[in-house]
Specification:
By secondary structure, this protein is an all-alpha fold. It is built from six helices and no strands. The chain has helices at residues 16-26, 30-53, 58-76, 79-83, 87-94, 101-112. Helix 3 (58-76) crosses helix 6 (101-112) and helix 5 (87-94) packs across helix 6 (101-112). The radius of gyration is 33 Å and the shape is elongated. The protein starts with 15 loop residues before the first helix and ends in a 5-residue tail after the last helix.
């Protein structure tokens, strides 16, 4: 013998076969891991769906109300007027504050792209 113990990394008195058996018991099997991953995905999906079904918060509802109000104001104008002007020009025309430029831009795109028409 060369003086090197072939079972050196193993604990004394444990053969290779019993060590690999212990090691396989410590690591979860691949099928258990797949089950865990699928179960985690189902839980995450159901949580996301329950949040989606919840009512919109008041602030978000206010945003949609403002968006629809601006949309209907723009609908009263001609298509050429709305689509021929920039968002900034429409804000000035309607007498709205500058911070509503995003909402006016969305309402303008709905009219010009015929999204809700």
């Amino acid at each position: 013998s060369s003086g090197i113990n072939a079972e050196w990394p193993l604990r004394p008195g444990i053969s290779k076969s019993s060590s690999s058996l212990q090691f396989s018991r410590q690591i979860p099997s691949f099928s258990k891991m797949k089950y865990f991953i699928v179960l985690s995905a189902v839980v995450a999906l159901s949580a996301a769906l329950s949040l989606r079904e919840a009512e919109r918060p008041e602030a978000l509802q206010g945003y949609f109300d403002t968006l629809m109000e601006i949309y209907y104001k723009l609908k009263e104008l001609s298509h050429d007027t709305v689509c021929g002007q920039t968002t900034t020009e429409l804000i000035e025309l309607l007498g709205l504050p500058d911070f509503l430029d995003g909402i006016v831009g969305i309402a303008r795109s709905w009219i010009c792209d015929s999204i809700l028409s």
